[in-house]
Each structure stands twice: as C-alpha cells, then as structure tokens.
Design a protein that fits this description.
This protein has 5 helices and 12 strands. It is mostly beta strands and 209 residues long. The protein has one domain (6-186): outer membrane lipoprotein receptor (LolB), chain A. A 12-stranded mixed sheet has the order 7-8-9-10-11-1-2-3-4-5-6-12. The chain starts with 5 loop residues before the first helix and ends with a strand.
Length: 209
Amino acid sequence: MRFLNFYSLLLTLMIFPLSVHAGQGLDGLDSFLKNMKTLQGQFVQTQFNADRRETQRASGTLELSRPGKFRWVYTQPYHQELVADGESLWIYDQDLEQVTQKPLLQATAQAPIMLLLEKKSLDKDYLLTELGNDQGLDWVGLKPRKDEADVREVKLAFEKKMLSRMQLTDAFGQITLIEFKDMKLNPALADNGFVFVPPAGVDVVRAAQ
C-alpha cells in the first residue's frame, strides 16, 4: 500500500501523559495529549529519500476519535482510505478496486498505536528531547529506546499547543513530513463516521485472525 506507513507516524501522538521535565515543545505535547479526545483537519504529506530529494506528495483529510478510531483519506494524487473502527483496520485503494481488512491489533502490532491501546507512558518507549522553536513552531524529538525499531526518530511541532507538523525518519534515512491545516480539537464526530462499508464490486481481502 502506497502510504500505509503513515499510521505508525500518526498514532505516535495518541498516547498518555509525559513524565519528563517539560519545555515549550513538551508543554505543547503534554497539553495536546491530555486534552485531545477527537481531532479533525486536513494534511499535506511529503516524502523524501535519504538524499533529501522529494519523491512523493499527497494530501487529504483526517478524523480521529479516542480510543482506537480514525479515518485518514488521501484525495490527491489518488484516492486511498485507511479506517480504524476500534476492532479492524480497513484499507481501501480505489485504483486497485481492493479493500483489505485486518484485525487492528494485528495490523499495528509493531506500531506506536499499541501505546494507545495499552495506555503506556510515552517516555517508557521513547527518549524525549526538547528541540526548541523554529519559525514559530515548538518542536519535540522522540527516539525509540529499542534499536531494532523501524522508526529512527519522530519529530512533532506545535503552534499554540496545537499539532502543526509531524516528521518521521525511518531506518533507511527516508523522511515523511506531514503538515496539518485547519485543525479542530475535540469537534463532535459521529461514531458512524468510523464505520467502513466496502463499495460494491470491489475485492475484499480479509487477513487471517
């Protein structure tokens, strides 16, 4: 799947309280995590290779609801949906006319979403670093404590304690940057918005339990 690596980046933020000495960035992260129940907005996602050359750009919309529900929709340059309903992760690729359904815990066994589901402390699995202010954004760095992790580093940026950017560096030095726009904290989101019904005529592949 073209953008499936997104959720390991995105769901890093859906974790419970910090227990480190906070600065502006860590204060923003702590406040955001404590207050966020639902989230809605738009995004632009850009991917770079290890030489920092842009390789792909996409955009779309997002909705999140704690615990364990999200709808992440790519609208450009093609249509792809990732929907978690609390039990399953659904991945719909419009071009391929295919839907893949996986048990949510199985699909994200190695992803930071497990920190949400098990309510682990963030700094138990990550080393947190205050990175200071850059162009009006307060940045925080997160490095996995386990060397074998696929993610080398995550950086989160906040503007007035609202999530503004996320940056993931993988084990190969490739970077994924997500810039958020028109973000709304705790909007009213209907539960049926996280129910995925496969479109008529598409192939549905269901992963073994």
